[in-house]
Amino acid sequence: MATIVVHEPVPSPMEDAEAVMNAVKGWGTNEKGLLEVLAHRTAAQRQAIRHAYEEHYHEDLIKRLESELSGHLEKAMYRWMLEPLDCDAVLANVALKKHSPDYPVIIELACVKDPEEFLAVKRAYQWRYKHSLEEDVASHSTGDLRKLLFAIASTFKYNGCEIDAHLAKAESHILHELIENKAYNDDEFIRIFATRSNAQLNATFNIFKDDYGISIAKSLLEEPATEYLSALRTVIHCITDPIKYFVKVLRDAIHQHGTDEDTLTRIIVTHAERDLRLIKEKYYERDNITLETAVVRETSGDYETFLLALLGN
Amino acid sequence: MATIVVHEPVPSPMEDAEAVMNAVKGWGTNEKGLLEVLAHRTAAQRQAIRHAYEEHYHEDLIKRLESELSGHLEKAMYRWMLEPLDCDAVLANVALKKHSPDYPVIIELACVKDPEEFLAVKRAYQWRYKHSLEEDVASHSTGDLRKLLFAIASTFKYNGCEIDAHLAKAESHILHELIENKAYNDDEFIRIFATRSNAQLNATFNIFKDDYGISIAKSLLEEPATEYLSALRTVIHCITDPIKYFVKVLRDAIHQHGTDEDTLTRIIVTHAERDLRLIKEKYYERDNITLETAVVRETSGDYETFLLALLGN
């Protein structure tokens, strides 16, 4: 379900490192030459190029790229060249350190990735920042939102497919009672959302819809929408249909006044080798234009070329 | 720092399995014969015996031992024969399912074990019970205690030795302010206790003592002592001096009216191959009698023999 195109035969890491050096050496940078190599290599191949480049030229390729490129292209290339778990760690840190933290990034990591993979991101986070992701989540949020984010970011969820139907019934009833009473910040809400496995929560949400005739996400559409309620709904969307959720994030990034390039880059870079093909299909179904067309409309230059290459063009 | 004694040369797992079979077959059980083998083998050797026994006799050795033994000896042997991570998982589950849950067991796992080891226990828990430890912690506690237990049981803490002295100063000040105002259940309390690394917390607690002339544990000695406050103090003791903490747990188990055999078994079985030697030394320093003497006074029969063997006799 990946979208990137790797042409065979693939040159050796050293040949690629030389091609990269040819693109960056001297005055000016040959961005096209860079993209021809780096946008068409898998994560493992990119890491091999980094190592070959550093061994041969005694400089850090990522630092060199940062000094050669600028703007959205520089940011996108930086993320693309990081080892994927390290990239997720950087994205989480950037999201938390923003003046107005970008909490959905944390929710995506915690609720879409499987628990072992999320754990690997936490290890990468600790390796890079010398403290835990949980510490930063707790330090950069407050109140109910902190309770929710901290709980979902810290739990090591069960990943099995076993479901306790009796429990799902009981907990969908608890959730319905709490929603009826607008007790959204009740600890039970957070307990259920943060600790139950995704399979169990999907069962609970299905029973909720069957019994009460409305999806739990819709029943949380309260006015005025608080950041906390919006985070609860993000959790639900990430658990019930991650592909649809990412389509929504892309649409929001593209359609908002002034494209949100950071989000556009984040989704495309982190999904290009995973499920971006599925996201593209769903995007077209939803918007009647391809994601590529949307990207061409909203971006330009080498940044546009890079995103299109990651999208499989 | 282990206490168990393994005599060389060690018989093969199959020879040991035969000796075990000789001790259990026919009418009656030869407990002495069982203990001569099983109390003097490492965890890896015991697992090898289990496998050899099952392969050769087509029955589960643990189930056979359960049917042959009874009372405290049966419980102790059951725990001893489990793979250590699995044993921790069982102990956590037993602690949570009690009518009045034995929360210190959870705090010990979360605060004394290093984060990777605690994680391995969580995996063993999920493997055995098909749901997460966090779910059970959250379901079997309420109120402030739940907030604390859930937070410490879920966080994947940083295990490095780097300390942020500035942060330690700031957070010891926050803790002091909260204690002055008796705001023990403030979220900041739980945030700091549950997310900071043990090294960082030790720095914070040291600064607290330097600046305010009282240890943080003593400053939480409030009357009437609630279960929550007592849990907070257990967290502090487990982080600052686990050996001293386990000595206290053993002393409480031994000195209380009617020995608490479950706790005595738990500490001896789970530490015999780790740090029981240090615990014994500290116990003697504190009580002026050896732990062995205390065990002889409070227990009897084959259960006594078993505990003494694990203590290195």
UniProtKB/TrEMBL annotation, chains A, B:
One of its GO terms (cellular component) is plasma membrane. InterPro entries: Annexin (IPR001464), Annexin_repeat (IPR018502), Annexin_sf (IPR037104), AnnexinD_plant (IPR009118). GO terms for biological process: response to cold; response to heat; response to salt stress; response to water deprivation. It comes from the Eukaryota. GO terms for molecular function: calcium ion binding; calcium-dependent phospholipid binding; phosphatidylserine binding. Keywords: Annexin, Calcium, Calcium/phospholipid-binding, Metal-binding, Repeat. Ca(2+) 3 binds at residue 298. It holds the Pfam family Annexin. Ca(2+) 1 binds at residues 26, 28, 68, 254, 258, 296, 299, 304. The keyword Metal-binding applies. This is Annexin.
